[in-house]
Amino acid sequence: MRNLCKICDQRPVAVNYYKEDKVFYRSTCDHCSKKRNNGKQLWELAGYKKKTVCDRCNYTSKYSEQFNIFYIDGSLTNCKYSNLKTVCANCQRILHKLKLSWKQGDLRPDF
Length: 111
Fold this sequence. Notes:
Low-confidence stretches: 104-111
Number of domains: 2
Structural class: alpha+beta
Strand content: 15-25%
Order of helices and strands: EEHHEEHEE
Number of helices: 3
Distance between the termini: 39 Å
Shape: globular
Largest sheet: 2 strands, antiparallel
Strand order of the largest sheet: 1-2
């Protein structure tokens, strides 16, 4: 059973990430964590704009919801433009499943 949010003490804490079949949780719920940053992600606060084309496969869509932000070094707090790539949902799943890394400065992942 998940713990309750340390801020609102009403909702369960949000899942932060999965690693080696183990679940790691945040200390706050989704609602409170977004509220802390005025509902924006750190990359948005840094001024990065999500593109409508995948930086990996060049898939294009007019809907930005089909794309995610990929952190090259894996650090969610490193919001330098050189560390952020816009990838489609399919490419993000492939990158995580195959544990591929992105070479700094490259548009294609290192295979």
